[in-house]
UniProtKB/TrEMBL annotation:
<dbReference type="InterPro" id="IPR006148">
    <property type="entry name" value="Glc/Gal-6P_isomerase"/>
</dbReference>
<dbReference type="InterPro" id="IPR005900">
    <property type="entry name" value="6-phosphogluconolactonase_DevB"/>
</dbReference>
<comment type="function">
    <text>Hydrolysis of 6-phosphogluconolactone to 6-phosphogluconate.</text>
</comment>
<comment type="similarity">
    <text>Belongs to the glucosamine/galactosamine-6-phosphate isomerase family. 6-phosphogluconolactonase subfamily.</text>
</comment>
<feature type="domain" description="Glucosamine/galactosamine-6-phosphate isomerase">
    <location>
        <begin position="10"/>
        <end position="234"/>
    </location>
</feature>
<keyword id="KW-0378">Hydrolase</keyword>
<dbReference type="InterPro" id="IPR037171">
    <property type="entry name" value="NagB/RpiA_transferase-like"/>
</dbReference>
<dbReference type="GO" id="GO:0006098">
    <property type="term" value="P:pentose-phosphate shunt"/>
</dbReference>
<dbReference type="GO" id="GO:0017057">
    <property type="term" value="F:6-phosphogluconolactonase activity"/>
</dbReference>
<comment type="pathway">
    <text>Carbohydrate degradation; pentose phosphate pathway; D-ribulose 5-phosphate from D-glucose 6-phosphate (oxidative stage): step 2/3.</text>
</comment>
<dbReference type="GO" id="GO:0005975">
    <property type="term" value="P:carbohydrate metabolic process"/>
</dbReference>
<dbReference type="Pfam" id="PF01182">
    <property type="entry name" value="Glucosamine_iso"/>
</dbReference>
<protein>
    <recommendedName>
        <fullName>6-phosphogluconolactonase</fullName>
        <ecNumber>3.1.1.31</ecNumber>
    </recommendedName>
</protein>
<dbReference type="InterPro" id="IPR039104">
    <property type="entry name" value="6PGL"/>
</dbReference>
Length: 254
């Protein structure tokens, strides 16, 4: 069963998330190659990470230096980078300038391509960044979850949930706008060394009960995230966790 940590609000959840990221970065720095590969989702996570990661880094050991990081995005909406819905654009505006220079190496979806070409190109970038790995093994993926149970751009009932061959897939029919997107596939999510799923707010409470306690068939997309490493942790605020009856780890603060 996944570990579920519950914080009073995102004021306490945010620093805990940032601390987990910096600790994972420092740990990876001692591993082979010294690189920390981090996959980031978009949506509400951008603001949370932009607020919490820079101060956490200033208190972190030198080994957590973002210059050692490879950052990629777990999904992307196919809009121009300056569009408010662009995940990469949001991170470039809100988080990346606040990291100590020179900052991480960032892989992003090439703007201006159609969905299939964008997915192919992004898949090639990832393969180049993870040489010798059939499926890229990220040190850490930070995922969000929507009120419908989607994670990345993997939506309930969508055929992409069956994708086993591609590491990045395209969709033109996302039920949540914008419709055209690319997303990491489940084989990549489940190959990661460690996965965090972050959810805050009362709008997520009903779906979290379904994901974490329901035995739904077919499972919702976020319930299909089961990394083979076994290192899966959910970080929730109390509002999001309000309907859960499984045991959770309660945190009062940082
Ligand atoms: O559309 C998306 O939604 C999910 C969840 O977003 P949130 O704002 O409810 O946290 C996000 O993780 C994903 O990256 C994004 O493209």
């Amino acid at each position: 069963m996944a570990a579920v940590s519950v914080f009073p609000s995102s004021r306490e959840l945010g620093p805990a998330l940032a601390r987990i990221v910096t600790e994972a970065a420092a740990e990876a720095a001692h591993g082979e190659g010294g690189r920390f590969s981090l996959g980031l989702s978009g949506g509400s996570l951008v603001e949370l990470l932009a607020r919490e990661l820079p101060p956490a880094l200033s208190a972190a050991p030198a080994a957590a230096d973002p210059a050692r990081w490879l950052v990629a995005f777990c999904d992307e909406r196919l809009v121009p980078p300056e569009h408010p819905e662009s995940t990469c654009g949001a991170y470039r505006a809100q988080l990346l300038p606040r990291l100590p220079p020179p900052g991480p190496r960032v892989l992003s979806v090439t703007p201006g391509l159609g969905p299939a070409a964008a997915a192919r190109d992004y898949g090639e970038q990832l393969r180049g960044a993870f040489p010798g790995q059939e499926v890229p093994v990220f040190d850490l993926l930070v995922l969000g979850v929507g009120p419908d149970g989607h994670t990345c751009s993997l939506f309930p009932g969508h055929p992409l949930l069956q994708e086993q061959d591609e590491i990045v897939a395209a969709l033109k029919d996302s039920p949540k706008p914008p419709a055209a997107r690319v997303t990491l596939t489940l084989p990549v999510l489940n190959a990661a060394r460690s996965v965090l799923v972050v959810a805050a707010g009362a709008s997520k409470a009903p779906v979290l009960k379904r994901i974490l306690e329901g035995k739904e068939e077919p499972p919702l997309p976020a319930a299909l995230v089961r990394p083979r490493s076994g290192r899966l942790r959910w970080l929730l605020d109390e509002a999001a966790a309000a309907e859960l009856s499984i045991p959770t780890e309660k945190h009062s603060g940082v």
